[in-house]
Write a structure and sequence with these properties.
Layout: H1 3-12, H2 26-37, H3 44-65, H4 71-84, H5 89-95
Helix pairs in contact: 1-2, 2-3, 3-4
Length: 99
Amino acid sequence: MPAKLDKCVEGLQGKMNPRTKKPFTESERFAICNARLKGSSSTDEELAQKYEEAREQCINKLIFSGEAKSVQEAQSIFEGVLAKSGYELDSLESNLHYL
């Protein structure tokens, strides 16, 4: 990973997601930092919201289609898809229809 990405992810460690009032997950931190490094002008809160929306959409689609039998299984699949997308939220959202 680029040093800038590592430093950014480390800097978000322990910071709270304003919507959930819980610390950002590792995937959220990577997605936020990747968007920052790509020049996004969105705030961390907006990026976290975008992550949550993509996550919920993916989980609902996986459970409805029967590809996942539980929320935990769907979450695991989502994390894998997010990692494969390079933690790029825009790329992830445009490819959710393939699930």
